[in-house]
Amino acid sequence: MTSEPSTVDTPLKKLVGEKTAKALAAHLDLHTAGDLIYHFPRRYDERGEHTDIRSLDVGEQVTVLAQVQRTAVRPMRQRRGNLLEVTVGDGSGGVLTLTFFGNQAWRERELRPGRWGLFAGKVTEFRGKRQLNGPEYVLLGEGGDGETAANEEVEEFAGALIPVYPAAAAVPTWVIARCVRVVLDTFTPPDDPLPATVRATRNLVGIGPALREIHRPSSKEGLYRARRRLKWDEAFAVQLTLVQRKHRAAAWPARARPAKPGGLLDAFDARLPYELTPGQRAVGAEIAADLATAHPMHRLLQGEVGSGKTVVALRAMLQVVDAGGQAALLAPTEVLAAQHHRGMLDLLGPLARAGELGAADGATRVELVTGSLGAAARRRALAEVAEGRAGIVLGTHALLYEGVDFHDLGLVVVDEQHRFGVEQRDALRAKAEQPPHVLVMTATPIPRTVAMTVYGDLEVSSLTQLPQGRSPIASHVVPAAEKPAFLDRAWRRLREEVAAGHQAYVVCPRIGDGPASEEETPREDDNGRRPPLAVTEVAPLLAEGPLHGLRIGVLHGRLPADEKDAVMRSFAAGDLDVLVATTVVEVGVNVPNATVMIVLDADRFGVSQLHQLRGRVGRGSAPGLCLLVSEAVEGSPARERLDAVASTTDGFKLAELDLEQRREGDVLGATQSGRRSHLRLLSLLRDSDLIRDARAEAIALVEEDRELERHPALAASVAALVDEERAEYLEKG
């Protein structure tokens, strides 16, 4: 190990030794001094303040600051030796049991009542009690023997604020803290990349003091200032990238697709059986103006489930067809692509029957291209697309394959954008000679700061009104474990709706035996919880039990495409009473007669998924009912999440809740790129003012120095925080 000055590029093995450096690299992907210095504490504990043991989730890897309350030794039943049980508490009333196997009298002496320590391990549950089996720990204050950390490590926790790092079982937080101390003793911070004028205007501390203070805070005020500066760096890097990309995109050429009076769009508007909402008209005008320019549109259209986004998109597609181009809509599932196809054919009528008897003047064709098309049908569809006779093309990933060629692709509409990877969207855009116009749609409302941070290079339009005739949806949690009678009542309620002439969905998180598919949400764990309920297992049990005598259909992603389509058609026609399905019904499925949905194992779905699923009912004149069945106990995080979903149908409130409960970095595409998130401190929810200020400074700086040529250190810092892959994700988002 060296005592020479170290920089961000110094390998950790020179500073902390080969063995520790290997563990940091293998378990936490930390290789250099810079990697470690930017591995910020997850939180800071204070001795005497609780860390809320009651909120811990089973299966979570945790580090808790707690005080030993009592110890007990008892013989083990299955094998020789004793079991040491140590009860620790955090001052909030929450307690945790630590279990140690084998004869370890020294540990009993060490873990005396009254001692404070940090205890790290995986939360399990045994007979209703939360516990950590054989946890790693470090005791605070006095030194100890055995597994207790050496005094030099304990020093790390002698201050008022104790840093707790994102850790791994093999590298607990106190080992990381020791390594950070070693690195900080020799660390030379980089030159500050932030322009001095921005630092002064925004009252930000320098990078060197910020990096020291975040690891070894001298006070709460010093820590606040350090975190604010480092959050600013993250927000500024993302906003600079987005503003630069927006400028570059504005310079790309695209073919203008202006509206044509007396064309298909006017004919479509004239035959619509209902009036557009004011919101649909306003958003339609924004999109029409974008399409008429010689630069590619990049617009995000967000709207609640059932707000009428599809009609807005279809009107945009018709404007492009009127201007001589083609439009493609990419849907996440074959079920949804087929439903879009049927729905558009119904809405367009003779306008979609070019070449057939009874076709309207100037009609086009609407083609469906999916992976399950037969050879002859595929050849015919591809010829229609390649020769330009099909003005509107609908499909799944199959549209991205080699051999699907467009005559003149003018508009790409991506439905439910979060279900597609960056590369897939880009492959479709590459099928045009010039960049096509792009309309991205989502029914998952996006909080303002997420829109600003993730979609900062897209214009955002929102549909907030529901069309006339949509009914309210009531939602309730059914606590199956605590009150089994409530579940019986749920099935009776479903039968009542069917008896009244309506239909129902039953949704499960898993298909059943066989390999997992994309639509499944199995959160299986090794903590004694049973596997999630499966469609193929639940459907026969319902048919023999509480739903005996009802006409039950099964729908999931592993069925052949023609079978899926047949089931969906039967349900839509009213030939089935109940559809037992996976999340394949999550988006776009429209059966106005379906009034009730029962979601089994609802705690295994995300907030946005539940909101989307719920939107499948109440689509007609009768009110909708959504019952969220769960074994999650009252007061647990999973139950609180379900209670929140049941308490509101406001998608924007739920989107904020969803964001709170996910790692912030997921929003920036870490899950799509498979790389570690670069948002370490910034909270898109809590730091909205800082993000807004960073965007304003980014716009001003890029206006005067487009490529940051006069700020090379800043350009390098942005490149390190938002690498090229992440930048492309942001651009294509």
UniProtKB/TrEMBL annotation:
Entry keywords, A to Z: ATP-binding, DNA damage, DNA repair, DNA-binding, Helicase, Hydrolase, Nucleotide-binding
SUPFAM superfamilies found in the cross-reference section: Nucleic acid-binding proteins (SSF50249), P-loop containing nucleoside triphosphate hydrolases (SSF52540)
Taxonomy, superkingdom: Bacteria
UniProt cross-references to SMART domains, sorted A to Z: DEXDc, HELICc
InterPro entries in the cross-refs: DEAD/DEAH_box_helicase_dom (IPR011545), Helicase_ATP-bd (IPR014001), Helicase_C-like (IPR001650), NA-bd_OB-fold (IPR012340), P-loop_NTPase (IPR027417), RecG/Mfd (IPR047112), RecG_dom3_C (IPR045562), RecG_wedge (IPR033454)
Domain named Helicase ATP-binding: residues: 290-463
Keyword Hydrolase: yes
Pfam family, one: RecG_wedge
GO terms for MF: ATP binding; DNA binding; DNA helicase activity; hydrolase activity
GO biological process, one term: DNA repair
Region entry Disordered, spans: 510-531
Span of domain Helicase C-terminal: 486-660
NCBIfam families: PRK10917.2-1
Protein name stated in the entry: Probable DNA 3'-5' helicase RecG
Native species: Micromonospora olivasterospora
Lineage: Bacteria, Bacillati, Actinomycetota, Actinomycetes, Micromonosporales
